[in-house]
Amino acid sequence: MTHSSMQGFVMNSLLVIALLPLALLGPGMAFVSIGGGGSTHVSITGMALLQKVQETCRAVAEKNGYEFNPTGSSPEELVQACLGPTAKGEVSGAKFHSALQEIYTQNGLVDRDFVNSAPHHFNSEAFLEGRSLITQGMVTIKINIHNENFQAARTTLGRVLHTLQDFYSHSNWVELGYTKPYSNLINPGLPLDNLADVNTHTCSDCASGTCPNQLLPNILKDKKLTSGYMGVFSSVKPKGKCSHGGATDLTSKINPRGGISKDERRQDNLAFYNAAVKAATDASLELLQDLRLAVGDEDFLRMMGIARSSVLCFVIDTTGSMSDDIEEARSVVYQIIDQYKGTQDEPSEYILVPFNDPEFGPMIRTTHADKMKEEISKLKASGGGDDPEMCLSGLQLALTGAPSSSDIYVFTDALAKDIELKDTIEALISSTKSKVSFFITAPFGRRRRSLRAASFDDYKDIALLSGGQAIQVSKSELSQATDIILDTSTSALVTVLQRARNPGTQETFPVTLDETLKNITIYITGTSITFTLTNPAGVTQSQSEASGKLGTIQTVGNLHRIRLNSDKQAGTWQININSNQPYTLKITGQSTITFIYDFVESFAGPHPGYAVLSGRPQAGQSATLMLTVMGRRGPSSMTAEQVGLAKVSGPESVSNGVLTQMDNGEILVTVDAVPEGEFVVIVKGTDKVSNSQFQRQSNTQMSLSKVKIQAVVDSSVEPGQAFKLPFSVMTQSSDGKYSISARNDRNFPMSFPNELTLVTGQYANATLTITPPASTESGTDVTLTIDAKSSNGVDSNYAVLRLSVVTKITDFIQPLCKVVSVQANKCPHDLSQCGPFRWELSANITDGNGTGIESISLHQGNGTLTYTSLSAPIIVANYNASCCSQIVEIIAVDKVGNVGKCYQSIAQSGVPPALTLSLPLWICLLISAFLVRP
Ligand SMILES: *[C@@H]1O[C@H](CO)[C@@H](O)[C@H](O)[C@H]1NC(C)=O
Ligand SMILES: *[C@@H]1O[C@H](CO)[C@@H](O)[C@H](O)[C@H]1NC(C)=O
Ligand SMILES: *[C@@H]1O[C@H](CO)[C@@H](O)[C@H](O)[C@H]1NC(C)=O
Ligand SMILES: *[C@@H]1O[C@H](CO)[C@@H](O)[C@H](O)[C@H]1NC(C)=O
Ligand SMILES: *[C@@H]1O[C@H](CO)[C@@H](O)[C@H](O)[C@H]1NC(C)=O
Ligand SMILES: *[C@@H]1O[C@H](CO)[C@@H](O)[C@H](O)[C@H]1NC(C)=O
């Protein structure tokens, strides 16, 4: 058995993770394709990602002295095991799931956004251009990971993997007899040799359209690399060239007819198909390994959404009247840092954005608790006075800088001066699904006039839209209200129910609290309010009982916070609220049962699929969303029974969707009658582990729109260069003028038409030009929102796009690591005697004419590595280790992320000890030998 067939076996039997439906493997593969349907791109990508994540987790565990022992193969169990002993509490797999989905989605979108681009699919012999997409993409991924722009990294990773995988399906690599990946595709320092030139005939005619092997004998003999020509709109191809093949390829009807693509598994191409899938999987692993070595294990895992999930993000008004508030924010930060240190709830990232008038920012983003303490201690209240401040500008920075689904807290005592940003803020909230809560310490009822008549209700609107809360308290009471921040700084927070009533009503809200929910907190905001809680057994507690049979109630300002006792009874609770003033109700808890979702639209073409919407879904048609429900033991441990869209603001209204289980484990939900106005996603189902009913709700409110904006960012942006972004706008509402506004969070200069005249049902095309200054640091990411609004303001929609500014890389030279000497003569032949003896190695590391070495590290080996100054032209690395640790792999990474390695083993040749072991153990050893292959 060769290594690569062994690997196929490994993945089919051992590393298949619950995320991937079994139907995609084994015999079920017959109905999917590398390029088609997206399924096999997803399964190849999924296998590679999950295998690489497991390897990385194991290495991190080993380094930190704990064992990586997942209790099962679900992503949530992998995350829990990967985070190690600190992950004692509830750990949510949601971010890992989301990261995987993002990569899969972007992979699939290459078939929509670049359907007719040969390089993106290695069609039509576009080898150099295709390779350039991969290598430039890898540069973008590395610099984005380095700058912690993980979302941008995932977007590019999904696309690059698609192109890389297509090479094996669309070229004749496997027909030439190769079984290993073509490493030169990810290594621009190496040439692409032996490409068939445009005049070389490559295929024989295939009248039936599907033939086992159409490649001409001399192409095979000379090992000439070629790929199939593909014409979606045209049948033209150079003489004698192979086609891609299939119904959508017009060139396949031109002699030589047929096609060489291995997109589909058929009886006549079985061997080549399987070889292509295997090579594509190995190639994906090879690319991921290069990324992992370049960025390091920890950042690789963070890019994959494997990190403690809580992020602490504060946006703080620093004008003169805010000194008490700043002091309180500081004290909360200290408390969270000190209290959660070393636990699962310790934030993995801290973000701080000050704002004043007229300045705001800069955003401070750090993973180091001490740095956050230092920065927040530096904040001083000054200037500004009572006037409105640049609150939304500060919030915009936080929303674009924080990871998606973050909790953001805004401290202010003034209205927003920059209220014109409200639409942008709302677009960013919908696209990031982050929650924004306000602590407003202005005197009640204070109403200030401002440019566009901002009011504190704007903050309440923003909070409600995002699923956050607007708390109004006096400055002296603020410290009692900030417990909310501690409640939400946890790794597995879920929202069970959120409702708002304006005007107030008397209403009873039933809610199912399941067994898994812990630390349940009920928040009621509003004035002149009475409420009563009733548990499933009929026990009640009213707002006047601060400490009752069901929980403890704390009231401060407009906030009532009720902590249910930890022995709460699972089942249906009733919350009766009575007020004639507006109020909100929110119930949260900690649980691993949660869900992620995206509103999507289907797209047609040769390889149809679903694309995530970047704005609001279209009015006048059913809404569709992709949903993944997670449980304690992965998706298989629960069933979703009801998924619907519900109104948060009364009266109560829920539209249930039709659920379709998708191949990749997701659920496609189609809702025909979408509620008017704003809605959230609700999910109800059964947890099979506790056999109890659960309910969950999304935080971010969404609504439909008659306007649609389409835009695709197809590459990174260079500093100092104007970048043109075509976009198109369509309305289903009446003809007329639509105002266009666009903003970016870096204040880079932009030009775009301020107005477009739309004809109902037709796309109008326009171009936005954005020019990052020449001094922009490579790796800067830019969040761009484009907004289109009808002249009467009734119809509007937005698109949120991310751009990466990346300096064009000219250094493709990998660092060179050369082993100069090995001294292992003291090591005994008998391994059991190795204990007291050591061996040594010396290596010279250079970066030739490259950008210079950035880091040197040990990837394998249990010894001591030292090296001379990184700035010298030749770096001398010395390694010594116990004779028991027989392998060393040294990794050198240069300043742009090119990776060089040296590998040395002092294992004595002879009969491998493995042969004397039982077969399963032998297989395991072979597998691990393969996994740690240099
Ligand atoms: C959550 O509940 C657990 C026990 O149920 C308790 O130990 C822990 O302190 C609670 N966490 C918070 C933040 O109150
Ligand atoms: C806008 O561009 C699309 C292709 O991107 C094209 O099909 C359409 O005709 C264009 N519309 C107008 C009004 O030019
Ligand atoms: C390794 O580097 C050292 C120090 O620069 C140099 O003296 C030596 O000749 C180099 N050896 C090789 C084999 O390049
Ligand atoms: C480095 O650059 C110089 C001048 O451009 C060239 O002569 C030399 O061959 C290059 N060396 C390497 C290792 O590429
Ligand atoms: C191993 O390397 C370290 C660091 O250079 C050094 O301090 C130590 O003496 C070496 N050990 C042996 C046995 O050479
Ligand atoms: C690695 O080194 C540590 C301490 O030096 C030792 O406890 C451990 O057993 C070693 N592991 C291997 C695989 O050699």
Characterise this structure.
The structure is a single chain. 25% of the residues lie in helices and 28% in strands. It is of the alpha+beta class. It folds into six domains: 11-28 and 38-303, no CATH class; 310-490, Rossmann fold, CATH 3.40.50.410; 493-591, Sandwich (Jelly Rolls), CATH 2.60.120; 594-697, Immunoglobulin-like; 707-805, Immunoglobulins (Immunoglobulin-like); 816-914, Immunoglobulin-like (Sandwich). It has a six-stranded mixed beta sheet, sandwiched between helices. Strands 7-15-9-13-12 form a five-stranded antiparallel beta sheet. Strand 10 (530-534) and strand 11 (540-542) form a beta hairpin. It starts with a helix and ends with a helix. Bound molecules: 2-acetamido-2-deoxy-beta-D-glucopyranose (6 copies). Residues 728, 763-765 line the site of one 2-acetamido-2-deoxy-beta-D-glucopyranose.
Layout of strands and helices, then pairs:
Blueprint lengths: L2 H11 L25 H26 L10 H9 L10 H20 L4 H4 L5 H20 L3 H21 L46 H5 L48 H26 L1 H7 L7 E7 L5 H18 L8 E7 L8 E3 L2 H10 L12 H11 L5 E6 L9 H11 L2 E6 L15 H11 L3 E3 L5 H4 L1 H6 L4 E9 L4 E8 L4 E9 L3 E5 L5 E3 L8 E6 L2 E6 L6 E8 L4 E8 L3 E10 L5 E4 L10 E8 L7 E9 L7 E3 L1 E4 L5 E5 L8 E8 L4 E6 L9 E5 L11 E9 L4 E9 L5 E2 L3 E4 L5 E7 L9 E11 L5 E10 L10 E8 L14 E9 L6 E8 L3 E4 L7 E8 L4 E8 L4 E7 L13 H13 L3
One 2-acetamido-2-deoxy-beta-D-glucopyranose binds next to loops.
